[in-house]
Specification:
With 123 residues, the protein is an alpha+beta fold. It is built from five helices and two strands, in the order αααααββ. The chain has one domain.
């Protein structure tokens, strides 16, 4: 039964009972792979897998910039990523996006000829 006045411990107990009913889908081996530290090679592969020739993100830097300086910055980026994952605290800019309008046709006088896109940061 739902009540807005349930005590916190009752809510916690209900959540635990609920989640116990959900079958586990992640094997121990899968879990190990999910929680192990990110390696430098994995990070480099991920960064190099991004498409090139895309619009710059809200930070003004295209992915090509990060790919070009990857050798010089990869160790610092890896250490920063590990620190954020360990602390479970991420910069507010990780979830920040900038909505901009781009023209769909040459007639820019009509609002219907514009399309909104969201620019996200690369890091």
């Amino acid at each position: 039964m739902y009540s807005a006045n349930l005590e916190d411990d009752v809510i916690r107990t209900t959540k635990v009972e609920f989640f116990i009913l959900i079958p586990h889908k992640v094997s121990k081996n899968m879990n190990y792979k999910l929680v192990k530290d990110i390696t430098l090679d994995e990070m480099k592969v991920a960064i190099n897998s991004f498409s090139m020739g895309k619009v710059a993100r809200h930070d003004g830097l295209p992915m090509e910039f990060f790919q070009e300086i990857l050798n010089e910055t990869s160790l610092a980026l890896l250490e920063a990523t590990k620190a954020m994952l360990e602390a479970c605290q991420f910069s507010k800019f990780f979830n920040k996006g900038l909505i901009v309008l781009i023209p769909k046709s040459r007639d820019r006088s009509l609002i219907g000829n514009w399309r909104p896109i969201t620019l996200l940061g690369n890091v």
